[in-house]
Design goal:
Layout (H helix, E strand, L loop, with lengths): L1 E2 L5 H6 L7 E5 L5 H9 L4 E5 L3 H10 L6 E4 L2 E2 L4 E9 L26 E11 L1 H7 L5 E6 L5 H6 L8 E9 L10 H10 L2 E6 L9 E8 L2
Parallel strand pairs: 1-10, 2-3, 2-8, 3-4, 5-7, 8-9
Antiparallel strand pairs: 6-7, 9-11, 10-11
Length: 220
C-alpha cells in the first residue's frame, strides 16, 4: 500500500500513467489540480467537470492558457437531467462558493469543518456512460472523483465505462459527511469487486481525519 502526501498526488500518479493520458476530473472546482495535470501531461487531454456556474467561470479564467483542457459544466451522476446542488461557503467569505459543495445534503461534516451550506442551485447532470458515448470516449486512463459523497453513485451508473478505466482516484469518507453517503469500506469493496486493486491512499489511518483519497488500478 502506497501512502502518499495529498501534495504529492500528481507525482504518485505519473508512475502509472502514459505520456498522453485521457483524464476525467469530476469536481474540478477552480482548477488547482486541473492545472497540475495539464502541466504534467501536456500531451494528454483533461476533461474537467464543474457543475456550479459561478465556480465554472472561475475554472475557465484560471485555466484559459491551456489548450489540453476540455470543459463540461455538468455534474457526473447516476442520472441524466438536473439535480439540486448544495453550495458551500466559508463564513469569512459570504456569497462566494467554496470547495465542498455536493449533490448530497451535508450532515456530519458540519461538525468537522467551518464550512457552511447556506444555499442551493440546480445543476445539469449526466452519467459517465452517456457522456462517453456523446463525446466518443472509449477509454479513460484516470478517473478522478472529487464529488463529496457521490463517487460510488457515479461508478455504479457506468457499467460500460467501468470496464474501460485504468486508474480511479476517489475521495472517501470515514463518517457520513453527507446524507446517504457510502462509507469508505463500501466504496473500496465495490471498486475492488469490479476489477481494481486498491494500491494507495493519502491518509495513514481513519482516525486523524474524516476523509481522504484512495487510489485504484485496474488488475491486469
Amino acid at each position: 500500500m502506497i501512502i502518499f502526501s495529498p501534495h504529492k498526488t500528481i507525482e504518485t500518479l505519473k508512475q502509472f500513467m502514459p505520456d498522453n493520458p485521457v483524464i476525467v476530473e469530476a469536481g474540478a472546482f477552480d482548477g488547482n489540480d486541473t492545472i497540475k495535470m495539464a502541466l504534467q501531461w501536456p500531451k494528454g487531454v483533461i476533461h474537467a467537470f464543474e457543475p456550479v456556474l459561478e465556480i465554472y467561470q472561475r475554472l475557465l479564467k484560471n485555466t484559459d492558457k491551456f489548450t489540453n483542457i476540455y470543459y463540461h459544466p455538468l455534474a457526473l451522476s447516476n442520472k441524466n437531467g438536473t439535480a439540486l446542488f448544495h453550495i458551500s461557503e466559508r463564513p469569512s467569505r459570504p456569497g462566494i462558493a467554496s470547495q465542498a459543495g455536493s449533490l448530497h445534503k451535508p450532515k456530519q461534516r458540519l461538525s468537522k469543518s467551518p464550512l457552511i451550506f447556506p444555499r442551493t442551485t440546480t445543476v445539469n447532470t449526466i452519467t459517465l456512460d452517456r457522456w462517453a458515448v456523446h463525446n466518443n470516449i472509449t477509454a479513460i486512463d484516470l478517473l478522478w472523483l472529487d464529488t463529496q459523497g457521490h463517487e460510488l453513485a457515479i461508478l455504479q451508473a457506468a457499467p460500460s465505462m467501468i470496464k474501460c478505466i485504468n486508474i480511479i482516484m476517489a475521495e472517501v469518507s470515514f463518517i457520513e459527511s453527507y446524507e446517504g453517503q457510502p462509507q469508505y469500506e463500501e466504496v473500496v469493496a465495490w471498486i475492488t469487486h469490479h476489477g481494481f486493486e486498491y494500491i494507495g491512499r493519502d491518509f495513514v489511518d481513519t482516525t486523524t481525519t474524516f476523509f481522504g483519497n484512495a487510489l485504484f488500478i485496474k488488475k491486469k
